From TrEMBL, chain A:
Organism: Halobacteriovorax marinus
Protein name listed in UniProt: YeeE/YedE family protein
Keyword terms, alphabetized: Membrane, Transmembrane, Transmembrane helix
Residue spans crossing the bilayer: 41-61, 82-100, 106-129
TrEMBL record, chain B:
Organism whose genome encodes this protein: Halobacteriovorax marinus
InterPro entries the UniProt entry points to: Sulf_transp_TsuA/YedE (IPR007272)
Membrane spanning stretches: 6-26, 47-68, 74-92, 113-132
Keyword set, alphabetical order: Cell inner membrane, Cell membrane, Membrane, Transmembrane, Transmembrane helix, Transport
Similarity-based family: Belongs to the TsuA/YedE (TC 9.B.102) family.
Keyword Flavoprotein tagged: no
Protein name, UniProt field: Uncharacterized protein
Subcellular location: Cell inner membrane
Length: 135, 133
């Protein structure tokens, strides 16, 4: 049952990304172009999502018992270290170049565009490199 | 605000469903990164989510192709460099827009707030630098 929920969550997530405009790299780069021709529309994506989850997560964490699992698996680290900062800088730089973060890139695979496929393969490669060197 | 706001709510709904039923945080870079190692039955929820993203994309492309009316005008070099940065960076920094942003900020996680401000700042600076070249 939990796998069906995950599948459903993925489908809904993709639809949200598409409707919001996050799948459009030009729009994302326009949003990041704060000092140029700034397109602020995508600020409402994160805004809407955070407001919604502020309410629902609070309720779910208070209830503290997921329907199909024994416990909530929440991140426990509060560490603000070099890894967090350097990793986020690298991610932001890549995001600024291509205008796609991991979710929209995976959704855009349905376009069967060779550049999108190259990006996703390279992203997967970057994850594997991290896995190798962090052993 | 219109569609971006609605889209944001739908994205949050997906992560709320995941947390409410499965007790999991929907961090896409984490889900993809973890699904790359040896397959186990524990990872089925991660494969299911990733397949869901593709199915959702395919459904949307059929129903509303206008949402995908944009150019992907990047070179292969840009795709490769950006891919390595996004892949390695999200794993080193333990999250991306979904895990740190959509799920971390509502949990009032300072770590996620710092990560979100950092990757947004880095994205803004990257776009600024590239606008000069």
């Amino acid at each position: 049952m939990s796998n069906i929920i995950s599948l459903l969550s993925g489908i809904i997530f993709a639809i949200g990304l598409g409707i919001s405009g996050m799948v459009n790299p030009q729009k994302v780069i326009g949003f990041l172009d704060l000092f140029g021709n700034w397109d602020y529309a995508l600020a409402f994506v994160m805004g809407g999502a955070v407001v919604f989850n502020l309410i629902t997560f609070k309720f779910i964490i208070k209830k503290n018992k997921p329907v199909f699992a024994s416990e909530l698996k929440l991140p426990t680290s509060n560490l603000i270290d070099k890894k967090l900062i350097l990793g986020s800088i690298m991610f932001g730089a890549g995001w600024g170049i291509i205008g796609m973060c991991p979710g929209p890139a995976i959704v855009n695979l349905v376009l069967l565009d060779s550049v999108v496929i190259t990006f996703v393969l390279s992203m997967t490669g970057g994850m594997l490199v991290h896995k190798l060197i962090s052993k | 605000m219109g569609l971006p706001f609605l889209g944001g709510i739908i994205i949050a709904l997906a992560t709320t469903i995941m947390l409410f039923f499965n007790g999991r945080i929907t961090g896409i870079s984490g889900i993809l990164g973890n699904s790359l190692s040896k397959p186990t039955s524990e990872k089925r929820w991660q494969y299911s989510f990733l397949i869901g993203l593709i199915i959702g994309g395919a459904i949307l492309l059929q129903l509303s192709p206008q949402l995908f009316q944009f150019e992907i005008n990047f070179s292969y070099q840009e795709a490769i460099i950006a891919g390595l940065l996004v892949g390695f960076g999200t794993r080193l920094g333990s999250g991306c827009t979904s895990g740190h942003g959509v799920c971390g900020l509502p949990r009032l996680s300072v770590r996620s707030l710092v990560a979100t401000l950092t990757f947004m700042g880095a994205g803004i600076i990257t776009v600024l630098i590239r606008s000069f070249s």
